[in-house]
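Re: [ENG-882] Designed sequences occasionally contain unexpected residues at chain ends

Forwarding the minimal case from QA. Structure tokens:
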């Protein structure tokens, strides 16, 4: 069984569209408690934390062989400024007004945690994908209409494109080459894996 550690209807929609059955489990941690200046580092930390929270706190054990927890986190960045999930409607409009008419980076980190597999475990795999999104200039009235349409469709994707998007270039599997960030990712991954091994043994 795959447990999706996300309340996002869009993530559930994408899995269903791919023919992958998953049970949605809402996480209870505060995303804003993890805030780092680099978007890839922040998205990775948040995805790992979601997966670990569900694995350790929310799901019953013992785990069946091959059960997996899938978590993801997406952040937007523009000219060094990182935008996380909007706090409310007004914040969502503020973010859209800031990124309209620009080419910005959308960073999505994913983390798959398998608590037990063939007598071993846990196994954790994490990665990052990047997309360069060009959004045409839009007015406040257009943003308001788009938000209302999104609410009616409950956040699901329509025709693979969002309102106002002119161009989307994806670099799936992209990795940051900076040695300092790579070393930091390795240290964080090691700590998370160690904690998981201790908690799940």
């Amino acid at each position: 069984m795959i447990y999706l550690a996300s309340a996002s209807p869009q993530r559930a929609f994408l899995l269903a569209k791919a023919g992958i059955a998953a049970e949605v489990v809402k996480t209870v941690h505060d995303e804003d408690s993890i805030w780092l200046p680099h978007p890839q580092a922040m998205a990775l930390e948040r995805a790992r934390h979601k997966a670990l929270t569900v694995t350790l706190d929310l799901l019953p054990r013992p785990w069946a062989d091959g059960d997996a927890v899938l978590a993801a986190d997406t952040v937007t960045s523009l000219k060094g400024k990182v935008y996380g999930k909007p706090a409310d409607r007004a914040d969502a409009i503020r973010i859209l007004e800031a990124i309209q008419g620009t080419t910005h980076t959308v960073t999505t980190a994913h983390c798959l945690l398998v608590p037990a597999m063939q007598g071993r475990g846990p196994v954790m795999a994490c990665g990052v994908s990047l997309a360069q999104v060009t959004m045409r200039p839009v007015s406040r009235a257009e943003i308001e209409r788009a938000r209302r349409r999104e609410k009616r469709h409950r956040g699901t994707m329509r025709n693979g494109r969002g309102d106002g998007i002119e161009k989307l270039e994806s670099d799936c599997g992209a990795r940051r080459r900076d040695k300092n960030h790579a070393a930091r990712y390795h240290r964080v991954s090691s700590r998370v894996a160690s904690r998981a091994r201790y908690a799940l043994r």
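QA comment: On inspection the terminal residues look reasonable. The chain has one domain: 2-200. Proposing we downgrade this to a documentation issue.
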